[in-house]
From TrEMBL:
Residues 3-67 form the J domain. NCBIfam families: DnaJ_bact, PRK10767.1. This is Chaperone protein DnaJ. Residues 132-214 form the CR-type domain. Binds 2 Zn(2+) ions per monomer. The lineage of its organism: Bacteria, Bacillati, Actinomycetota, Actinomycetes, Micrococcales. SMART domains: DnaJ (SM00271).
Length: 383
């Protein structure tokens, strides 16, 4: 069975508000209406169940004590059903106060916790993906409160020792078990296990030590990236509570389609249309590439589908260095909308080449010099 705290991504001493925020964040991302799919649906169920247990004080107390919301300890051969008491409680009871293995393991929790990691999406052009670039973005995230600088308190004040637990962060409680009445320790509800209370919280961050804000950031995008690649920016995520360290920021890239070039791996592909006359006679084309203008030699008699390769003009290899190639695919255009003079010239060319129309008749061929069907007709006439 998965740990509910790990499922929500919070620490075991997380406050109810932190549990609620973590649940909402994951629920928005995993909800079936937003993220359809069996895997996301199962994860959504686990997150919802974890929230149901940890948001209920009594269920959470039993879960913390036994490792199971049903009141049975799953970590050491089970507990005592119906009592909410497990073997770990016995060990803590007998050894903690006596300076044994449990001594010093418990104590007031720290308010200072590391911030959450963050993920943002950034779009780049194909040219920027080929050569790399720097992108200026704005991040909506949690930053250290500028008023209290992460102390959580109003100026001139500080956290005060809890009057209930006297700074230990724990209170003792009696539990009935098969061994009789035993005394166990539980987090103090007054200070939530911190051992101190903030009686004068900062008016701007409400005692959290951080606030939401938008801050500019420059992201260096390496050459050769493609859609789906992620860049990790260490320490650029959300600020932690009470002055805790920042999490990490992950930048996920999306490469926009280019009107001329299509990327396949490290190679680029382009399609160029040229007139029938240029394909027949041969020519030199000028192609605008990401590296500037390049001349493209077209051999006489070029057919549709012929490919010319320009080496080292493709995308930069993300790992290993070097670049791919640029493949230019030629498409021969058949002329349309001919005027009388143009048609006459094409008919003359057809006569010279002995070519015929699709109807099977010759193009005003002289006697004895027609195409296949006229020659076949002449042979039957001779018979």
């Amino acid at each position: 069975m998965s740990d509910h705290y790990e499922t929500l991504g919070v620490s075991r001493d997380a406050s109810p508000e932190e549990i609620k925020k973590a649940y909402r964040k994951k629920a928005r991302r995993l909800h079936p209406d937003v993220n359809p799919g069996t895997e996301a649906a199962e994860e959504f169920k686990r997150v919802s169940h974890a929230h149901d247990v940890l948001s209920d004080p009594e269920k959470r107390r039993v879960y913390d004590a036994t490792g199971n919301e049903n009141g049975t300890d799953t970590g050491f051969g089970g507990g005592f059903p119906g009592t909410g008491f497990g073997f770990q409680d016995i060990f803590d009871t007998f050894f903690q106060g006596a300076g044994g293995a449990g001594a010093g393991r418990r104590g007031p929790a720290s308010r200072t916790r590391q911030g959450q990691d963050a993920l943002i999406n950034v779009r780049v052009s194909l040219r920027d993906a080929v050569f790399g670039t720097e992108k200026k973005i704005t991040v909506d995230t949690a930053v250290v409160c500028p008023t209290c600088n992460g102390t959580c308190c109003q100026e001139g004040t500080q956290p005060e020792t809890c009057e209930v637990c006297h700074g230990s962060g724990q209170v003792q409680r009696q539990v009935q078990s098969i061994l009789g009445t035993v005394v166990t320790a539980a987090p103090c509800a007054t200070c939530q296990g911190f051992g101190t209370v903030i009686k004068h919280p900062c008016h701007e961050c409400y005692g959290e030590g951080r606030v939401r804000d938008r801050r500019p950031l420059t992201v260096k995008i390496p050459a050769g990236v493609s859609t789906g690649n992620r860049i990790r920016l260490s320490g650029q995520g959300e600020a932690g509570t009470a002055g805790g360290p920042n999490g990490d920021l992950y930048v996920e890239l999306k490469v926009d389609p280019d009107p001329t070039f299509e990327r396949q791996g490290d190679d680029l592909h382009a399609r160029v249309r040229l007139p029938m006359t240029s394909a027949a006679l041969g020519t030199t084309l000028t192609l605008e590439t990401f590296d500037g203008e390049r001349e493209l030699a077209v051999e006489p008699g070029t057919q549709t589908g012929h490919t010319v390769t320009l080496h080292d003009l493709g995308a930069t290899r993300l790992r290993g260095g070097g670049r791919g190639d640029l493949h230019v695919h030629l498409e021969v255009e058949t002329p349309s909308g001919l005027d009388d003079e143009q048609r006459e010239l094409l008919e003359q060319l057809a006569r010279l080449r002995g070519e015929e129309q699709s109807t099977g008749t010759t193009l005003n061929s002289p006697a004895g010099s027609g195409g296949f069907f006229s020659r076949l007709r002449d042979r039957f006439t001779d018979l």
